[in-house]
Amino acid sequence: MESFHSNLLDWYDGNARKLPWRIAPAESKSGVLPEPYHIWLSEVMLQQTTVAAVKDYFAKFITLWPTVNDLARASLDDVMKAWAGLGYYSRARNLKKCADYVAHELNGQFPETQDGLLKLPGVGPYTSAAISTIAFQNKAPVVDGNIERVVTRYTANATPLPEAKKDCAEFVDAEMPQSRPGDFAQAMMDLGATICTPRNPVCALCPVQTGCKSHQAGTMMSFPVKAPKKTKPHRKGAAFVLQRPDGAIWLRKRPDKGLLAGMSEVPTTDWTARADGNIGAASAPSEADWVSKGTINHVFTHFHLELEVWQAVGQAPDNHGWWADRDKVNSEALPTVMKKVISAAVPEAFKP
Predict the structure, then answer these.
(1) For residue 192, which of 140, 145, 154, 131 has the smallest C-alpha distance?
(2) Active-site residue list
(3) DSSP assignment of 193-209, as one string?
(4) CA 147 to chain centre
(5) pLDDT tens-place string over residues 215-266
(6) Percentages (nearest 5) of helix, strand, coil residues in the chain
(7) CATH class in words for 2-222
(8) How do residues 286-320 score in pLDDT, each as one tens digit?
(9) Domain boundaries, given as residue ranges, for the chain
(10) Does domain 234-350 correspond to CATH entry 3.40.630.40?
(11) Fewest Cβ atoms nearer than 10 Å: which of 164, 254, 291, 312?
């Protein structure tokens, strides 16, 4: 077992992914530590999101707000606008809360320990372990989806996830070395992302294949074992894209709590994860010559949504919204589902 971490780190030294929030293995071995703000920001963004999707958002945030103190000085609306399209919007609200807390209560310094990090808004067991280990070189078991896959395959652990998470954490804790724990955690992530992939793992290039039980048995694709997924319900509703004669689009802000809280939207009916909303032009927020623009589909974590899209030119239905210029609507804090709705009604709205 002793060779696992040494073989893994040897491989990582020559094959580490180059990511904008990372430092290279050579720097890490020489004692350089990454910027905690970068590690925290990237880890929050990477929750339930791919590295490819996060890179551009990370670059945008670092350009707009180079430090956690800069982010704390930003308005929540600006943060939500910059986050729009990345999904899981409670992360953005907690990001702002956490930046405020670190800047105002901790003098801009992130806690170094996992226990200290757990006290921050939006920071849970995984994120706290990742920040403490990668940014501060503390030994804490880091287990994400990639690491779960590596460990369950290596140990041929047939316990279904999420129950197997405990076993994975114990394995990582036992194998993580006192020196270079951050590199070990990132090496495990990279191994899962580039070699021990969900489909077609490249076992011939794996630095730890000699001890891998599922490789020896040829059962790699049987792991990890996952509990059966629950069927997602399908919900329906209607969305209404109202324009002024000059093309501006009427937007409003969603409530501060609940799904897509605080984000911008066009008027819609009251659909939720638990109930359908009204459909048809009769459900529109104002009288106008509403024209059907078809339907769009969107998948949320817990349900599928189908929205009718209606478009019309008319006057503001109330005083609870604002007109957004058509050529600037992309700068609004619109979630992906609303971008789909507007694109269906006004295809030119999001063209460069």
Answers:
(1) 145
(2) 43
(3) HHTS-SSS--GGG-TTG
(4) 17
(5) 999 999 999 999 888 899 999 999 999 999 999 999 999 998 889 999 999 9
(6) 45, 10, 40
(7) mainly alpha
(8) 999 999 999 999 999 899 999 999 999 999 998 89
(9) 2-222, 234-350
(10) no
(11) 291
